[in-house]
Design goal:
Elements: E1 2-7, H1 10-19, E2 27-32, E3 43-45, H2 54-64, E4 68-71, H3 74-79, H4 81-85, E5 91-93, H5 101-104, H6 106-116, E6 123-126, H7 129-138, E7 143-147, E8 156-157, H8 162-173, E9 185-189, E10 194-203, E11 207-209, E12 214-215, E13 218-220, E14 224-227, E15 232-235, H9 242-262, E16 268-278, E17 281-288, H10 295-302, H11 309-318, E18 332-340, E19 354-355, E20 362-366, E21 369-371, E22 377-379, E23 383-391, H12 394-405, E24 408-409, E25 413-414, H13 421-424
Parallel strand pairs: 1-2, 1-4, 2-3, 4-5
Antiparallel strand pairs: 6-9, 7-8, 7-9, 10-11, 10-16, 12-15, 13-14, 15-18, 16-17, 18-23, 18-25, 19-24, 20-23, 21-22
GO molecular function: ATP binding; metal ion binding; phosphoribosylamine-glycine ligase activity; phosphoribosylformylglycinamidine cyclo-ligase activity
InterPro entries: ATP-grasp, ATP_grasp_subdomain_1, PreATP-grasp_dom_sf, PRibGlycinamid_synth_ATP-grasp, PRibGlycinamide_synth, PRibGlycinamide_synth_C-dom, PRibGlycinamide_synth_C_sf, PRibGlycinamide_synth_CS
Family: Belongs to the GARS family.
Length: 429
């Protein structure tokens, strides 16, 4: 089989790395890919078609003889890439455009949860800045403000007081900090608890989740500073019990998929659910309709060598997920994101990146990198690299990752030093 993978981040590098290990795969083509995907065996970057030229991608896939298309980024999924491939004879791992609205519009997803009794934070949605202002003046509890549309994972602001809340609202709706994604906003109650990420394979009938992970959204140690696309993830989570995961399944995942089916938007592909473990039980923070980033980098390290990702993705596309097992290694995995100085705001590009000899069991997945004709690796994005590792213990996994971070150099590189500190503090000794 030949595979066409859409995207250019560390998520796509991790997917290409795992997909290329399948004995069923002859070659993986990545559009447009990055400086890391270009260095993998049996993987090639292509720039002859833009990643958002979906009709062109169908033509390209036919010319190449592709058997499976995997959509990585949120915009490809929300734009409805699946619909372009639906009658092409080529499998496409992505939900329909209608189902992907669960990510494309927070107002839609909150309305769905409200209609079907899926636990989430109390909220109000607004398209009028003046009405949103008046509502903020009335509420006397801490709130979260979210841009309705896609904002590269940065469209959620957690103000600590009313002044900050008004500033955030003005930034989103008036200054258009996130463009048209902020034409509508959600103002919801702030939830207390542990936030976890649940990645679930779905074929429209059956669903199977990977072990829960925990992302570190804020830019600075101690969960301070503005939200980012994610600065590091570890999994599984020792503080999450099997009973809690069972509750997530029957109170959130199953009702969500049932609701989508009832709405005529049957969901197939990858459902990413951000969950807050509150004192009242698990509640939904948000949905994504594709693989998470940086969650995917950690999850690919957890999949057992005999786990064939191609089989899983094809089963989701063909309604046969019930016939597939997803073997996972018994230990722990994590990844540490290395960003360009200034991210998530303005940052420089074009700085030379050097990667030394990393410890065994570590994979350096590229996010914002480009390889020049002479082989020089340079920065090309805010999140530059994702250093992922596996270990028999969380201490081993996180230690290996940070030792590998020490082997990487570029000007003004920045990373959090406290990934997984939530569980490391509880570890004996």
């Amino acid at each position: 089989m030949k595979i066409l993978l859409i995207g250019k981040g560390a998520r796509e590098h991790a997917l290409a790395w795992k997909l290329s290990q399948s004995p069923k795969v002859w070659h993986v083509y990545v559009v447009p890919g990055n400086g890391g995907t270009s260095r993998l065996d049996n993987v090639s970057n292509l720039d002859c078609v833009r990643a958002d030229d979906y009709a062109g991608l169908v033509t390209l896939a036919k010319v190449l003889g592709v058997g499976l298309v995997v959509a990585g980024p949120d915009d490809a999924v929300v734009d409805g890439i699946e619909g372009y491939f639906r009658h092409s004879g080529i499998l496409c791992f992505a939900p329909t455009k209608e189902a992907a609205e669960i990510e494309g519009s927070k107002a839609y997803s909150k309305g769905l949860m409200s209609k079907y009794g899926i636990p989430t934070a109390a909220y109000q949605s607004f398209t009028s800045y003046d009405e949103a202002q008046r509502y903020l003046d009335q509420v006397d509890t801490r709130v979260v403000i979210k841009a309705d549309g896609l904002a590269a994972g940065k469209g959620v602001i957690l103000p600590t007081n009313k002044t900050e809340a008004h500033e955030a609202l003005h930034d989103i709706m008036v200054d258009k900090k996130f463009g048209e994604a902020g034409s509508s906003v959600i103002i919801e109650e702030f939830m207390e608890g542990d936030e976890i990420s649940v990645l679930t394979f779905c074929d429209g009938k059956t669903f199977k989740s990977l072990p829960p992970g925990q992302d570190h959204k804020r830019i600075f140690d101690g969960n301070l500073g503005p939200n980012t696309g994610g600065m590091g993830v570890y999994a599984p989570l020792s503080f999450v019990t099997p009973e809690q995961m069972a509750q997530v399944d029957w109170a959130i995942i199953r009702p969500t998929l049932d609701a989508m089916r009832a709405e005529g938007r049957t969901f197939t592909g990858m459902l990413f659910t951000g969950v807050m473990l509150t004192s009242q039980g698990p509640k939904v923070i948000e949905y994504n309709a594709r693989f998470g980033d940086p969650e995917t980098q950690t999850m690919m390290m957890l999949l057992a060598p005999e786990c064939d990702l191609v089989d899983i993705l094809c089963a989701c596309c063909t309604g046969s997920l019930d016939q597939i097992s997803i073997p996972v290694l018994p230990g722990f995995a994590c990844n540490v994101v290395i960003a360009a100085g200034g991210y998530p705001e303005s940052y420089s590009k074009g700085d030379i990146v050097t990667i030394g000899q990393c410890p065994d069991g570590v994979q350096v997945f590229h996010a914002g990198t480009e390889e020049s004709r002479d082989g020089t690796l340079r920065t090309a994005g805010g999140r530059v690299l994702s250093v992922a590792s596996y270990g028999s213990s969380i201490e081993e996994a996180i230690g290996s990752a940070y030792r590998a971070v020490g082997c990487i150099k570029f000007d003004d590189m920045f990373f959090r030093t406290d990934i997984a500190s939530r569980v490391l503090r509880r570890s004996p000794g």
